[in-house]
Specification:
Elements: H1 17-32, H2 47-57, E1 69-74, H3 77-98, H4 101-107, H5 118-121, E2 124-131, H6 143-160, E3 164-165, H7 175-180, E4 186-195, H8 211-214
Antiparallel strand pairs: 1-2, 2-4, 3-4
Helix pairs in contact: 2-6
The protein binds flavin mononucleotide (FMN).
Length: 218
């Protein structure tokens, strides 16, 4: 292999052959219990769990290893209140004026509307930003793909630590730069309230496509 970087031995993460299927099954079974939760308990989340989950997310592969992500972890109640107020302003405009009838029809079964109490009720909210070219940051490649993979890692890490998440995408998202004190070259990608589900939390009774519908074996 020819590379301008010094090289190190590839880290080993060896799983004995006889354990591989059981581990793959256990992971898939655990992930099958992840649901988007919209009602959170007030019970606080251990800060270290979030720290480790963000650390896991930041190990994601990225285009040219530029790691074009930023994770803003908000636990301060006053900041969450401002986040909610700004998000509800933007969302009211979306639901009442900008969303197409088709879009509203797709959202209807989920029962979502402009109200976002979870932004204040969840004990933590992680706002993930894409980092673009700026005074101190290079032009990144495959930003959406890279940040999407990192968010996937983050959701999986939080879930396996027993925390519930909501993948929330307010539209538009520019207000998040101000609320999160991030510069122009950073663009919000997703807002993730994190916490424990409220005792009476309910989720839509949805199904997932069976493997034979989503897998093509050649
Ligand atoms: C990119 C993306 C954006 C989403 N945006 C929202 C959102 O703004 N508000 C919301 O309540 N749910 C949102 N969701 C959650 C989806 O509605 C949810 O993942 C889907 O209905 C499947 O349910 P599950 O996550 O419980 O399996 C979003 C999910 C994704 C992947």
């Amino acid at each position: 292999m020819s590379t301008p970087y010094p090289v190190v031995p590839a880290p080993r993460f060896d799983v004995p052959g006889e354990q591989a299927v059981a581990r793959a099954r256990a992971f898939a079974d655990a992930m099958a219990l992840r649901r988007t939760v919209r009602d959170f308990a007030s019970r606080p989340v251990p800060p270290e769990v979030i720290d480790h989950a963000v650390r896991a997310a930041a190990t994601a592969p990225s285009g040219a290893n530029l790691q074009p992500w930023r994770f803003v972890v908000i636990t301060d109640p006053e900041r969450k209140r401002r986040l909610r107020a700004a998000a509800e302003d933007a969302e009211r405009e979306f639901y009442e004026r900008r969303a197409s009838p088709e879009w509203l029809a797709a959202l209807a079964p989920l029962g979502t509307d402009w109200r976002k109490p979870f932004l204040e009720e969840a004990p933590a909210v992680i706002v993930v930003f894409e980092v673009h070219k700026g005074p101190h940051t290079p032009r990144p490649y495959y930003v959406k793909e890279s940040v999407g993979i990192a968010v996937g890692f983050l959701l999986a890490a939080l879930h396996q630590a027993g925390l519930a998440t909501l993948t929330h995408t307010p539209s538009p998202m520019r207000f998040l730069n101000e609320v999160c004190e991030r510069p122009q070259e950073e663009r919000a990608y997703v807002v993730i309230p994190v916490g424990y589900p409220a005792d009476d939390a309910m989720v839509p009774d949805i199904t997932r496509k069976p493997a034979e519908e989503v897998v093509v074996r050649l």
